[in-house]
Sequence to fold (587 residues):
Amino acid sequence: MSLKKIFLIFGLALSMLALVAIVFIFIVPEGKQHESLLSEPPAEGCTVVMVGKDASADSSVMTTHTADCSICDWTWHHVPAADHEAGSMRKIYHISQIKTWPPDVGLKWDMNKENYTGVEIPQVPHTYAYHHGVFGYMNEHQLAIAESTIGCRRKMENSTPSGIFDITTLTLIAMERSKTAREAIKTMGKLAEKHGYGFHDTGEMLAVADPDEVWIFEIMPVGPLWTPKSGKPGTVWCAQRVPDDQVSVCPNESRIGKIDLDDKDYFLASSNVISYAVENGYYNPERGEPFSWKKAYSPTEASAASSRGTRARLWRFFDLVAPSRNFSPETPNIEFPFSVKPDKKLSLQDIMDITRDKYQGTTLDPAEGLRGGPFSNPNYHPRPVKVEGKAYNTPRTISVNRAEYTTVTQCREWLPDPIGGIVWLAFGAQDTSCYMPLYAGITAIPESFSIGDHWVFNRESARWAFDYVDFHTLVAYSHAIKDVKKAQAEWEKAAIERVPAIDITAKELYGQNQKLAIEYLTDYCVNNAEEVIDAWWELGDRLLVKYNHLSIYDTENRKRTNLPYPESWFKEVIKYHNLEPQKPAKK
Fold:
């Protein structure tokens, strides 16, 4: 080939590249340019609900966390308060949300010590007591936290050792060192800026609450090339306060939009919150559009309708709490408001019911028709499926049966901190579990909470009692769930109704002898939980006997009847198999 031809081909190639660049920059709409570089926000992760004190029926600030993992560590632990010598240091470990070890090797919270980052930070003179599962959930001062993974742009991810802090470690540090939501946000943000954030985690959201307010705190890495020597923040973060009379939700999607950094009562952020977006081409101030956090760092174009229910949780929550607003499932999720005022103030039971919602009565109800089988089981198809090479979305409900546990936290400013804070904990699938109260000030939780994993059945583990019930409920769901709801009314509803009396007794004791009040609350919480766990093991046994062989065994009358199938199911079976009706017998 002649040299002239080579130069001609080379020139044409350059021209084509330039043309592609021009189309990419000027014709592709802003926000779409980096679409292929996005780390898709997870659709299978956790749902978080937040309720301001003036939006709740009893004036408590509430948050929820559905830990929807299916393979994560489910154990719960209490960490006591501690005093530390002057000049002592606190080691920082990498803690994965997902990784577990076989029970015979060691418990997760011991094995994590093998993942030392090599970084120590100055220890504070005194660390507070708190309860934790995968994350820190509540400390003795009623600081409460809930988590939801929201993702970020792929270019921002930092899985290198320079990302010293992950989201789990940040929540534990916040529990140890903070009394208020604002203090926790600033503590986590400052540490992540100085030492770097990421490693196991990408974009994360935390609901951070105290007795007075609740905030959405979102934090993201700043790429694998960051080092402390750069002098730049090792993370980018932003926080927005939920108005006291409103509620909000995070279903694995960034929720913070336009920000006003001059309004310190409602917004907090890292120093690079806008500059990092400008430097990386995620936001162009010359276009004259206001900066939007979620559009810059974690945009998504999906809606409940366009995703065929995979991303319907955002719409569903707002439709449940504010039906008068007539939110459309066609509305892009990124266009939904940050928060809304609910049509009525929400009670603790209302919030628990929302954590169990499976889109009942909507076109996305996963129990309707063939999807739910003969016994209207909403848990058959929790994830998208592939058939003959084609993908089909299925509704992703707020309640999914892969939850490790679900929490509802209450922070109540009219009571002393050890009494005012409550974590309501339900192990396993929400629809077949039972919420148990753990007051903020208790000094112990049942030993069975800290035992067990998914791969080894263990009757000493609290979680397995609830999985035992769930497994036997799935067989004949529409019938067995009635037995479960009856048990929930007996144990869960009774615990809710008992709270005012427990509060009064504990407060009276607290005024006389704080230690005695703490012992009283600890004994109550541990005893109640142990009774519930025993009741659930017994319930599982009863379900096994009652619905054995897909029959109904009446243990009181020692009779057996056939489990009734709906006629609609038989019609579909007849249609699918082209069955012929039986010919009438000849007379």
